[in-house]
Design brief:
single chain; 166 residues; mainly alpha; 72% helix
Length: 166
């Protein structure tokens, strides 16, 4: 297998730029989630289930998300992020980092986390009494970002390393 560090310099530079932009985009997404939910269980509940306007009139009122809102959000995230995660995973394969088995686990995890995160959001919103699911959503999202970050670091590192040509 020819590792990324053995690829032509022009392709490595292109991949480096792609990964910087993609990672920046995901970090902006994380900043948005932080802004909307404070990265807290209560914040996630409020974001999707809405707030009671009588609780605190000084805070922003959040309205519950409709099925239409969630369909759009889920559609956009699953289509967009699955493509990003697929490309990133394919590039990660050619880093040679970790054993084959671990690479496959790391490659698949963000895709699985997409389903569990957004599935959890649907459960939270439409099945009453399931507020504990916010912790599952948080862990799933955290796992998604950690594995994507690991793949990004590996790919970025490999694009600046020089290796012997095959």
């Amino acid at each position: 297998m020819m590792l990324i560090r053995q690829w032509p310099a022009a392709i490595r530079r292109f991949i480096f730029i792609y990964m910087l932009i993609t990672t920046t985009g995901l970090m902006i997404g994380l900043a948005f989630v932080r802004n909307e939910t404070n990265l807290s269980s209560a914040g996630i509940r409020e974001h999707y289930n809405g707030t009671d306007p009588q609780d605190d009139l000084n805070d922003d009122i959040k309205f519950e998300k409709s099925a239409k809102d969630l369909l759009l959000t889920t559609h956009n995230h699953i289509l967009g992020l699955s493509s990003v995660f697929f490309i990133t995973a394919a590039l990660f394969w050619f880093t040679g980092w970790f054993s084959e088995t671990w690479r496959l686990v790391i490659m698949a995890e963000p895709l699985v986390a997409l389903v569990t995160t957004f599935g959890g959001i649907w459960v939270l919103r439409f099945i009453s009494g399931m507020e504990w699911i916010t912790w599952f959503i948080m862990l799933s999202g955290l796992s998604m970002f950690i594995t994507f970050g690991l793949m990004s670091v590996a790919i970025l590192t490999e694009t600046i390393r020089k290796g012997k040509s095959a």
